[in-house]
C-alpha cells in the first residue's frame, strides 16, 4: 500500500525543506571540492564513490542528516488506530531508497537545478492552496541523451515553487573509448540540447502543454568555477508561441569539476558555427523543396489541391520537414509486437490542437517528448509515433497524409509487405485494413465491395528517409496503386536531400527522440479504486431513484475473463475465452432469472466522468436502474497498463434478476 499522491508529495516537500534549511547541498559540494583538492594526486583524475562517502562520514554530514530526518517509530501503534495500511515512515523509506542514484566516478555529469519560477502571469490571481486541497499543478519533464526526468508536481502559481535537481550523464556513444572521462573539448562537440517540457495538470487530471524549450547547456563549459546560473524565458505553444508564459531560474554545474575550462569565446564561436551550418543546410533544402514542388505542379495543375505536406509546424511554431518527425524507435521490453505498439498508440488520448475563435483546424505537430508527456495529441502525432515504432520493428512503414469522409484532413500509417501487401493502420483506433486496389479502366465483372477503411484521398507518404508525392490521375485511395518504386505514380524527393536535414545529428535544430518510459500505474490498485468509486456512484444514483442496491461479489469476479478477452482482441484481433465466460455466467444465473451485461472502454481513469458517460447509454442505464425481483448488481473494472502511464480501462456493469411476467 502507498500514500495518496498529495500526502506523499507533502511528505517529500517537508524532507526537501529540511535538507534545504540545513544547506546539505552546499556542504556536500564544499567537502567534495576539498576532498578532490587534498586527496587526489596531480596525475590522478578519479575518485571512487567509497572515498567520497568516507569523506562525508568523517566530517559528520551523514550523521547530521540522519539525526534531522529521524522518524519516531516506537509509538506509531499507540498514536494511530489499527489500520491495514503501513505506517508513513515505511513508505517514505521505500521512496527514499528508490531515489538513490549510482554515480560512476569515471563519467562526467551535468547537475541541473531548477530554483523556482516567476512571472507566470496567467496564475496571478491563483489563491494559495490549503494543505491537502486538490489544485492544478505544474510538472517539468526533461530529456537529454536518452535520459528522461520528471519533477515533482508543484501548485500552479505566479511564482511556482520549483526546487528540483536532475543529474544528467554527459557521454559520447560509440567513440571506442568508454573508460575515459569526457573532457571539455569533447563535451563542446555534443550538440544535443536539454529538451524541457512544462505540463499543467488540472484538478480532474486533464493535461495541457504549457511550454516546450530547448536549453543550450554548453555555456557552463566556459564558466570559471564550472557552474552557471541561467534565466530561461518559456514561450507558449501553437498560436501563443510568441507569448511569454513564465521564467525559470536554472543552475548548471559540472561534476566532477572541469580541470580545464574553455574560454567563453571558444564556446560562443562553436555555437555560432553550428547555427550557421544548420541554417545553410535548411536553406539548401528549402530551395530544393521549392523546385520539387514546381516540378510536381507541372505534371498536373490539379496537384495544387492535393494534401502534399512537405513542412509542418511544431508546438513552438517552427516549420520543420515532415520526415524529421519520424525515426525508427525501439520500445525495448515495454512492447513486444507491432500490434501491441498500435494498441499503445491507440490508448494515448486524442485531442485536436486548441484554437482561439473559429476558422477551422489549428495545425500543430508535436515533438515526441511533448506528445508523450501530455499523453494526448492530434492524429498526426499518433501516426508519427506509430510509424516510428513500426520502423523500429523492421517494417517498411510510412505516414500517409490525405482525407477522410467529407474532406477532413487526416494522417494514418501504411506498411508495405515483402509480398506487396499494403496494410493501413489507423493510429487512433488500432484497426488494421488490407488495401486492395481497383483498376478503374477494367470493365466491372462484378460489383466491387466498398472498402472498410475510412480514407478517401491520399496526397503523399513519408518516413525518415523517403518522401513521395502522389502523381496518379486520381488521388482516391480506393483506386490508388501503391507501387512506390514507380516514379510515374509517385514522385520521390531526393533521399540525399532528406538525409541532409533529417538524419540524426544532421542539424542542431532537430529534437532528439526520447526513449519510452515504463508505466508507473499499479494496475490492480487502480482497478480496485475505480471499482469502489463506481459502486458508490451506482448506489447513490439508485438511492436517488428510491431503489436499494445489493452487490454480488462472485458475479463481479466472473466478469473478469470477459474484460481480459476484450483487451486481447483489441491487441491481436483474435477473440479467445468467450466460451468459458458464457458457461460460467449460465451456471451463476439460476433458472427463471435474466442476466444483462454492458462492457465499455475508456482511456482515462476518472470514475465520475466514466459513470456519466455510461449513463448516456440506454443499455447501461437499464442495467444500473434495473427494477425487479431479487435484483443483484455487479461491476468489474480492469485497467491494462502501457508505457508512458497510458492505460486501457475496461468496465462492465451487469445485473441478474428474476423474470416476472
UniProtKB/TrEMBL annotation:
<dbReference type="InterPro" id="IPR038765">
    <property type="entry name" value="Papain-like_cys_pep_sf"/>
</dbReference>
<dbReference type="InterPro" id="IPR056289">
    <property type="entry name" value="CEP76_N"/>
</dbReference>
<dbReference type="GO" id="GO:0005814">
    <property type="term" value="C:centriole"/>
</dbReference>
<comment type="subunit">
    <text>Interacts with CCP110 and CEP97.</text>
</comment>
<protein>
    <recommendedName>
        <fullName>Centrosomal protein of 76 kDa</fullName>
    </recommendedName>
</protein>
<keyword id="KW-0206">Cytoskeleton</keyword>
<keyword id="KW-0963">Cytoplasm</keyword>
<comment type="similarity">
    <text>Belongs to the CEP76 family.</text>
</comment>
<feature type="domain" description="Centrosomal protein of 76 kDa C-terminal">
    <location>
        <begin position="520"/>
        <end position="658"/>
    </location>
</feature>
<feature type="domain" description="CEP76 N-terminal">
    <location>
        <begin position="10"/>
        <end position="69"/>
    </location>
</feature>
<comment type="function">
    <text>Centrosomal protein involved in regulation of centriole duplication. Required to limit centriole duplication to once per cell cycle by preventing centriole reduplication.</text>
</comment>
<dbReference type="InterPro" id="IPR028926">
    <property type="entry name" value="CEP76-C2"/>
</dbReference>
<feature type="domain" description="CEP76 C2">
    <location>
        <begin position="102"/>
        <end position="259"/>
    </location>
</feature>
<dbReference type="Pfam" id="PF24656">
    <property type="entry name" value="CEPT76_peptidase"/>
</dbReference>
<dbReference type="Pfam" id="PF15627">
    <property type="entry name" value="CEP76-C2"/>
</dbReference>
<dbReference type="InterPro" id="IPR056290">
    <property type="entry name" value="CEPT76/DRC7_peptidase-like_dom"/>
</dbReference>
<dbReference type="InterPro" id="IPR056288">
    <property type="entry name" value="CEP76_C"/>
</dbReference>
<dbReference type="InterPro" id="IPR052299">
    <property type="entry name" value="CEP76"/>
</dbReference>
<feature type="domain" description="CEP76/DRC7 peptidase-like">
    <location>
        <begin position="363"/>
        <end position="493"/>
    </location>
</feature>
<dbReference type="GO" id="GO:0046599">
    <property type="term" value="P:regulation of centriole replication"/>
</dbReference>
<dbReference type="Pfam" id="PF24654">
    <property type="entry name" value="CEP76_N"/>
</dbReference>
<dbReference type="Pfam" id="PF24652">
    <property type="entry name" value="CEP76_C"/>
</dbReference>
Amino acid at each position: 500500500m502507498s500514500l495518496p499522491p498529495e500526502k506523499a508529495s507533502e511528505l517529500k516537500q517537508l524532507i526537501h525543506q529540511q535538507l534545504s534549511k540545513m544547506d546539505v547541498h552546499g556542504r556536500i559540494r564544499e567537502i567534495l571540492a576539498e576532498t578532490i583538492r587534498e586527496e587526489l594526486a596531480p596525475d590522478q583524475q578519479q575518485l571512487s564513490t567509497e572515498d567520497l562517502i568516507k569523506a562525508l562520514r568523517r566530517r559528520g554530514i551523514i550523521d547530521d542528516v540522519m539525526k534531522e530526518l529521524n522518524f519516531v517509530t516506537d509509538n506509531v501503534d499507540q498514536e494511530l488506530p489499527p489500520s491495514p495500511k503501513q505506517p508513513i515512515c515505511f513508505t517514505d523509506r521505500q521512496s527514499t531508497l528508490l531515489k538513490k542514484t549510482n554515480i560512476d566516478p569515471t563519467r562526467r555529469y551535468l547537475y541541473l537545478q531548477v530554483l523556482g519560477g516567476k512571472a507566470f502571469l496567467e496564475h496571478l490571481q491563483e489563491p494559495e492552496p490549503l494543505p491537502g486541497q486538490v489544485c492544478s499543478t505544474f510538472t517539468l519533464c526533461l530529456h537529454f541523451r536518452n535520459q528522461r526526468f520528471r519533477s515533482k508536481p508543484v501548485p500552479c502559481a505566479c511564482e511556482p515553487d520549483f526546487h528540483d535537481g536532475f543529474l544528467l550523464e554527459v557521454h559520447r556513444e560509440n567513440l571506442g573509448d568508454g573508460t575515459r572521462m569526457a573532457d571539455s573539448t569533447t563535451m563542446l562537440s555534443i550538440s544535443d540540447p536539454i529538451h524541457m517540457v512544462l505540463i499543467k495538470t488540472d484538478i480532474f487530471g486533464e493535461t495541457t502543454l504549457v511550454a516546450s524549450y530547448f536549453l543550450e547547456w554548453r555555456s557552463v563549459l566556459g564558466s570559471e568555477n564550472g557552474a552557471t546560473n541561467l534565466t530561461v524565458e518559456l514561450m507558449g505553444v501553437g498560436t501563443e508561441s510568441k507569448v511569454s508564459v513564465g521564467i525559470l531560474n536554472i543552475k548548471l554545474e559540472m561534476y566532477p569539476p572541469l580541470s580545464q575550462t574553455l574560454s567563453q569565446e571558444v564556446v560562443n564561436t562553436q555555437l555560432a558555427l553550428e547555427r550557421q551550418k544548420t541554417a545553410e543546410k535548411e536553406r539548401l533544402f528549402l530551395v530544393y523543396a521549392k523546385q520539387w514542388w514546381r516540378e510536381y505542379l507541372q505534371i498536373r495543375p490539379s496537384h495544387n489541391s492535393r494534401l502534399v505536406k512537405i513542412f509542418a509546424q511544431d508546438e513552438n511554431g517552427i516549420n520543420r520537414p515532415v520526415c524529421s518527425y519520424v525515426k525508427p524507435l525501439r520500445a525495448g521490453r515495454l512492447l513486444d509486437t507491432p500490434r501491441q505498439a498500435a494498441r499503445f498508440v491507440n490508448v494515448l488520448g486524442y485531442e485536436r490542437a486548441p484554437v482561439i475563435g473559429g476558422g477551422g483546424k489549428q495545425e500543430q505537430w508535436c515533438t515526441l517528448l511533448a506528445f508523450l508527456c501530455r499523453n494526448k495529441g492530434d492524429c498526426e502525432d499518433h501516426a508519427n509515433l506509430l510509424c516510428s515504432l513500426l520502423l523500429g520493428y523492421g517494417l517498411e512503414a510510412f505516414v500517409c497524409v490525405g482525407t477522410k469522409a467529407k474532406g477532413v484532413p487526416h494522417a494514418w500509417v501504411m506498411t508495405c509487405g515483402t509480398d506487396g501487401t499494403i496494410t493501413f493502420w489507423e493510429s487512433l483506433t488500432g484497426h488494421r485494413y488490407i488495401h486492395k486496389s481497383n483498376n478503374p479502366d477494367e470493365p466491372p465483372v462484378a460489383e466491387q465491395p466498398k472498402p472498410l477503411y475510412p480514407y478517401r484521398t491520399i496526397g503523399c507518404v513519408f518516413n525518415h528517409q523517403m518522401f513521395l508525392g502522389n502523381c496518379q490521375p486520381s488521388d482516391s485511395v480506393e483506386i490508388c496503386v501503391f507501387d512506390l518504386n514507380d516514379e510515374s505514380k509517385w514522385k520521390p524527393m531526393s533521399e540525399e536531400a532528406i538525409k541532409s536535414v533529417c538524419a540524426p545529428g544532421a542539424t542542431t535544430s532537430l529534437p532528439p527522440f526520447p526513449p519510452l518510459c515504463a508505466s508507473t500505474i499499479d494496475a490492480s490498485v487502480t482497478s480496485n479504486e475505480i471499482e469502489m468509486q463506481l459502486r458508490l456512484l451506482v448506489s447513490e444514483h439508485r438511492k436517488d431513484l428510491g431503489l436499494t442496491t445489493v452487490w454480488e461479489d462472485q458475479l463481479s469476479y466472473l466478469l473478469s475473463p470477459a474484460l481480459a478477452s476484450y483487451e486481447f482482441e483489441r491487441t491481436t484481433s483474435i477473440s479467445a475465452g468467450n466460451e468459458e465466460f458464457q458457461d460460467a455466467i449460465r451456471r451463476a444465473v439460476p433458472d427463471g432469472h435474466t442476466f444483462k451485461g454492458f462492457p465499455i472502454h475508456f482511456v482515462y481513469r476518472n470514475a465520475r466522468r466514466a459513470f456519466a458517460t455510461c449513463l448516456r447509454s440506454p443499455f447501461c442505464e437499464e442495467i444500473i436502474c434495473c427494477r425487479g425481483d431479487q435484483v443483484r448488481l455487479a461491476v468489474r473494472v480492469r485497467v491494462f497498463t502501457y508505457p508512458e502511464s497510458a492505460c486501457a480501462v475496461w468496465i462492465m456493469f451487469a445485473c441478474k434478476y428474476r423474470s416476472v411476467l
